[in-house]
Design brief:
Blueprint lengths: L7 E2 L2 H8 L3 H13 L3 E6 L13 E4 L2 H7 L5 H5 L4 H16 L5 E6 L5 E8 L3 E7 L9 H10 L3 E6 L5 E4 L2 E5 H10 L3
Parallel strand pairs: 2-4, 6-7, 7-9
Antiparallel strand pairs: 1-3, 2-3, 4-5, 5-6, 8-9
Length: 191
């Protein structure tokens, strides 16, 4: 069930009903999977603004190979045709970036009740805040929701991590970067 909900908001009560167990049991199992480093629970970012913010966590199976196995995805063609492809990429990017992030970096996501969101907020040591939007495309676009989210949280840097290899400005202080380039940038932030 977690694999089918990759990158989605977690609803312990709904999971519990589907599994015919209590919400407390489901939460305990989820906590165990997080402790075993099999699942990442990404908490929402709270900022003092006048908008209603989403308070549920997002959940990712941390190993994309395990995710694909659980969903019986055994080839790239099958993955590209599967509805989880975008969330698989998002989880893959998040795991790779957090692996190279400086110690004590706090990771979260930002989402309002109206759907304005940023996939990853990184609070780096030294009170630096980076916003990272993740798109599985070779030509990323800045959508209205991303612009609004950037205005809400006022990050020090803003990026769109996409499937291409070039680095270029997208306007509004946002840069499009590859996963490799973003990982290098983040690793350099600790120096």
């Amino acid at each position: 069930m977690l694999a089918h909900n990759q990158g989605g908001m977690i609803n312990a009560s709904q999971l519990a009903r589907n599994l015919s167990v209590t919400a407390k049991t489901t939460t305990g199992y989820l906590d165990l999977l997080v402790d075993l480093l099999l699942v990442r629970r990404l908490e929402p970012y709270y900022v003092n603004i006048s908008k209603r913010l989403v308070k549920s966590s997002k959940v990712y199976i941390r190993d994309s190979g395990l995710l694909h196995t659980l969903l019986s995805i055994d080839s790239l063609d099958n993955l590209l045709g599967h509805p989880v492809v975008g969330m698989s990429w998002e989880g893959h990017v998040i795991e790779n970036l957090l692996r190279v992030a400086p110690e004590r970096t706090k990771a979260s996501f930002y989402r309002t009740a109206t759907g304005v969101e940023i996939d990853l907020i990184l609070e780096l040591p030294g009170n630096k805040r980076w916003a990272v939007e993740i798109k599985r495309t070779t030509a990323p676009k800045i959508e209205r929701g991303l612009r609004e989210a950037i205005e809400d949280i006022q990050p020090d840097k803003a990026f769109i991590v996409y499937g291409g290899t070039d680095r270029y400005p997208k306007g509004n202080g946002i840069e499009a970067v590859s996963l490799r380039e973003m990982a290098s940038e983040l690793a350099m932030a600790s120096k």
